[in-house]
Amino acid sequence: MRDPKVVCAGGFILFLIVLALGAPLIAPKDPLAQNLLIATVPPVGFADAEPGYLLGTDGLGRDVLSRVIFGTQVSLTVAFVAAGLSCLIGSLLGLLAGFLGGFVEALISRLVDVWMAFPPVLLSILLVAVLGTGLHSVIAAIVVIDWTRFCRVVRTETMGQAQMDYVTAARTIGFSQPTILFREILPNVVPVLIALLTLEMGIAVVVEAILSFVGLSVSSDTPTWGGMIAEGRQIVHEGWWVLAAPLAALFATVVAFNQLGDGLARSLDPVLRR
Amino acid sequence: MSAPRLSIEALSAISLRDSNRPILRRVSLAVGVGEVHGIVGESGAGKSTIAKAILGIIPSQVRLTGGRIAFEGRDLLSLSRNELRALLGRDIALVPQDPSTALNPSRRIDAQLTDGLRLKRGLSAKDARLRARALLDEVQIRDPERVLMSYPHQLSGGMRQRVLIAAAFGLEPKLVIADEPTTALDVTVQKQILRLIRALQERHGTSVLFVSHDLGVVAKICDRLSVLYMGRVMEQGATADVLSTPRHAYTKALLAANPRYDRPDTGLEPTPPEVIAALRAEIAAFDAGAREARDG
Questions:
Q1: Is B68 contained in some domain?
Q2: Which structural domain range is residue B236 located in?
Q3: What b/e sequence results for B96-135 when a residue is b if at least 16 CB atoms lie within 10 Å of its CB, and e otherwise?
Q4: Does any CB of chain B come closer than 8 Å to the CB of residue A102?
Q5: Has residue B193 been placed in a domain?
Q6: Could you tell me which chain B residue has the CA closest to the CA of A164?
Q7: Which residues contact B23 (CB under 8 A, 6 or more apart)?
Q8: Out of A164, A168, A271, whose CB is closest to B57?
Q9: In this complex, do B105 and A166 lie within 8 Å of one another by their Cβ atoms?
Q10: Would you say residue B127 lies in a domain?
Q11: Cross-chain CB nearest to A172 (options B55, B101, B153)
Q12: Nearest residue in A to B179, CA atom
């Protein structure tokens, strides 16, 4: 756990969690309050900056910093809930497929193959269109698409572990199938799973941003990074900061999740850990 | 002698992958109560297949074609999966070959030792933990608390094998199957491990089926032994008799192939070609007889 990658990335994500939970207290302004008199004011430090608006204002005079801070709420909710559910469903099916083999494995693997043949972004847009917009639909869309990632990796990993001597040894003690799967094999799959989970959180944040960008996520009175990017894109020549701030937040978040996943994969493996 | 604890009668097996090549040819042997029975033979002789057949972990490409494996009179081969599972770990336990892979790399030793005690012996978590500690003492591990909190990769090969022996004998089974338990260890550790197995076996009155390719190892630990060649028992009897007055040419050849540190002038003798030819002929004659019995 001394891995600097894990400490930095984990620290940053912890910081984001604090921002999301404490947004009403931390944000300097109301993220929805419009003031057309100070529209498109640049960040502090530039000419014509308005004191108190650290990152400037958007086209409707709303505080960009406050909106970015409130935007973490949607991003992190989607990251944790959607990635968590995909992980749960996908890895359960993957464990079963890899451990039981035979008919179950064939069925689940074919399902994953067919599932993965659909273009993911198209599928999610289609799903949200059918389910209607809103946070639940975004999460559902991500879960429905991304469980296959977990399923594939966990299935392969489980198959490999099931061949190991310690599994045979467990059989010769007469342990039941569920005991062998969850007590013996699962702990060996967890490092890969954690790494995959954190990567998936990064992906979920991006997918949510894409859906917000095309207006298929939460309603427009909730600040989201994707929504801010969409608005900022239209006035990028008058106020680049409106686009740059949420983009930087998005970028940093995804990088942090990826680095955390990478670092955790190493430090959770008892053999690699020294 | 009273009824044997384990008795294998005319056990036969074929390899499905290798055009039904016989792996075991009517193998019969018996392990008495409190007895150590060795199975020796070169690799491919079918030693491990016998061990696996008893434990119900025959690989899918091997099929048993006949015979009985009676454990205290019950035929293991006719038991259901659940019946066999109930027996394994309570009455029969395995000391595996390779201590570096037979322990779960992601779990600490205490978890791995207590699992069997809790699930198969019904001990509470606390009792299991105390028992695990006592078991490590019994296999002469000096720092049991540290070992209990370790992961397998933090232990040496000899330590791991001690842990596995503790796990097997700790379940207080009636029969322990030791599948080449010293092959992966260096010679000095080998000796300690053999002494340990023998001591535990005597203390608990456990029967042991000891599989090895090494006559020297078998000579140290076994009361009786069976010499296996191409799945056929060539010679069987009390260890001292077989080693001092081998009756079968193959046993003589095996003995000659064993390095003698006390007599460095005598070189290693490879199995003479005429012995191999005679063995092949014997096997062929057996197969012809088996075919006739089946077809005629």
A1: yes
A2: 6-106+151-295
A3: bbbbebbbbbbbbbbebbbbbbbbbeebeeeebbebbbeb
A4: no
A5: yes
A6: B101
A7: B13, B14, B15, B46, B49, B62, B231
A8: A168
A9: yes
A10: no
A11: B55
A12: A169
Per-residue pLDDT of chain B (296 residues; tens, 9 = 90+): 568 899 999 999 999 988 888 999 999 999 999 999 999 988 888 899 999 999 999 988 999 999 999 999 899 999 999 999 999 999 999 999 888 899 999 999 999 999 999 999 899 999 999 999 999 999 999 999 999 999 999 999 899 999 999 999 999 999 999 999 988 888 888 888 999 999 999 999 999 999 998 888 888 899 999 999 889 998 999 998 888 888 887 888 777 777 666 666 665 667 778 788 888 888 888 888 888 887 76
3-state DSSP assignment of residue B27: strand
CATH number for B232: 3.40.50.300
Query: Hey, is the C-beta of A233 within 8 angstroms of any chain B C-beta?
Result: no
A269: nearest CA in chain B? B106
Of the candidates A178, A175, A181, which has an alpha carbon nearest to the alpha carbon of residue A155?
A181
For residue B218, the distance in angstroms to the closest alpha carbon of chain A comes to: 23
Residue B118 lies in a domain: no
Contact at CB, A174 and B106, closer than 8 angstroms: no
Please state, in angstroms and rounded to a whole number, the distance separating the CA atoms of residues B260 and B266.
7
Q: Please give the domain boundaries of chain A with CATH numbers for all domains.
A: 4-268 (1.10.3720.10)
Question: Per the CB < 8 Å rule, is A169 touching B102?
Answer: yes
- Residue B64's beta-bridge partner residues? B13
Q: How many domains does chain B have?
A: 1
Backbone Cα Rg of chain A:
22
For chain B, the 3-state helix, strand and coil shares in percent, each to the nearest 5, are 45, 25, 35
Q: How far apart are CA A180 and CA A173, in angstroms?
A: 10
- A172 vs B57, B105, B106: nearest CB: B57
Structure tokens at B102: 């037979």
Q: Which amino acid is at A264?
A: L
CB within 8 Å: B106 and A188: yes
Cβ within 8 Å of residue A135, ≥6 positions away: A74, A77, A78, A217, A218
Instruction: Find the chain B residues whose C-beta atoms sit closer than 8 A to any C-beta of A.
Output: 55-57, 84-90, 92-94, 96, 98, 101-107, 115-116, 119-120, 151, 153, 164, 167, 171
What amino acid occupies position A194? I
Chain B closest-CA separation from residue A151 CA (Å): 21
Give pLDDT tens digits for B147-173: 999 999 999 989 999 999 999 999 999
Q: Exposure of B183 by Cβ count < 10 A (0-12 exposed, 13-18 middle, 19+ buried)?
A: middle
Comparing A30 with B249, the larger pLDDT belongs to: A30
CB nearest A169 (choices: B90, B96, B119) = B96
Closest CB to B87: pick one of A174, A184, A187: A174
